[in-house]
């Protein structure tokens, strides 16, 4: 299948085309993307454009890169994976949300202190993608990418490892099932607005406001999960 955009000189068109290639699953089993040179030839654009596109996709959490090995779809292997698999059976969604409420507001506060203008722009783009009318699985993809980007921009390796552990646990099938059950058009509109409030505070470099906005968002997620789980049990 040819994924080349009609106007391959456009960074946006190239970004959309490579994103489509990744989401279509037309990659080898190890998820490795073609080299920059091969992508440049495939999409008929300069390697500078390809690098800019790959930077964006990495920020979105759709790819990861390893020096000397190449570029791969998805997330890099994380040493927390084995631990996450061990504790996942005992970590129901409300337990995960309790932990997220302890960690992510602080990450948002640090993000507000350290984000560049380009970082804020990418957060806006992720929030926009998450707000579009999409299926539940894709909604989880973009929502998770936004939260991961905030955690990475915060720049605290220890806290990022703790976040990665929670992120790994919450990607489990049972957790995802509960999230899908709690999702509605009303909650989606609420979450979209809360995402924008978080980014507004980050852009304003207001750490306290970013902390409170993230906490309010996660509390709303937790409350809706609690209601959904209660309804499922009745």
Structural description of this entry:
The protein has about 230 residues and is mainly alpha-helical. The chain folds into two domains: about 10-75, Winged helix-like DNA-binding domain superfamily/Winged helix DNA-binding domain (Arc Repressor Mutant, subunit A, Orthogonal Bundle); about 80-234, Four Helix Bundle (Hemerythrin (Met), subunit A), CATH 1.20.120. Helix content is about 70%, strand content about 5%. Strands 1-2 form a two-stranded antiparallel sheet. A hairpin with a 3-residue loop joins strand 1 (about 65) and strand 2. The longest helix has 27 residues, at about 205-234.
Question: What's the helix count?
Answer: 11
Low-confidence runs: 1-8
Taking all Cα atoms into account, the compactness measure Rg is: 18 Å
Secondary-structure content class: mainly alpha
Q: How many β-strands, per DSSP?
A: 2
Summarize the main sheet. 2 strands, antiparallel
Cα separation of the termini: 48 Å
User: Could you say which overall geometry the principal axes of the C-alpha atoms support?
Assistant: globular
The CATH first-level class of the largest domain comes to Mainly Alpha
What is the annotated CATH architecture of the largest domain? Up-down Bundle
Mean pLDDT: 83
Order of helices and strands: HHHEEHHHHHHHH
Number of domains: 2
Percentage of residues in helical conformation: over 70%
Beta percentage is under 5%
Instruction: Give the full name of the CATH homologous superfamily of the largest domain.
Output: GntR ligand-binding domain-like
Query: What topology, given as strand order, has the largest sheet?
Result: 1-2
Classify the fold: give the CATH topology of the largest domain.
Four Helix Bundle (Hemerythrin (Met), subunit A)
């Amino acid at each position: 299948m040819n994924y080349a955009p009609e106007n391959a000189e456009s960074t946006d068109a190239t970004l959309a085309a490579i994103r489509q290639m990744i989401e279509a699953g037309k990659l080898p089993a190890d998820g490795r993307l073609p080299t920059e040179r091969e992508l440049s030839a495939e999409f008929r654009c300069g390697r500078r454009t390809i690098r800019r596109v790959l930077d964006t996709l990495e920020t979105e959490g759709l790819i990861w890169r390893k020096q000397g090995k190449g570029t791969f779809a998805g997330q890099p292997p994380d040493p927390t994976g084995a631990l996450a698999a061990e504790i996942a059976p005992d970590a129901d969604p409300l337990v995960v949300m309790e932990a997220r409420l302890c960690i992510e507001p602080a990450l948002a506060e640090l993000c507000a202190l350290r984000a560049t203008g380009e970082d804020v722009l990418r957060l806006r783009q992720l929030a926009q993608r998450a707000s579009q009318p999409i299926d539940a699985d894709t909604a989880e993809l973009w929502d998770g990418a936004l939260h991961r980007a905030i955690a990475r921009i915060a720049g605290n390796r220890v806290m990022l490892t703790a976040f990665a552990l929670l992120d790994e646990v919450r990607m489990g099938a049972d957790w995802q099932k509960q999230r899908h059950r709690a999702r509605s058009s009303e909650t989606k509109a609420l979450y979209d607005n809360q995402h924008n409030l978080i980014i507004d505070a980050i852009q304003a470099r207001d750490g306290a406001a970013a902390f409170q906005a993230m906490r309010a968002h996660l509390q709303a997620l937790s409350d809706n999960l609690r209601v959904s789980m209660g309804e499922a049990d009745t």
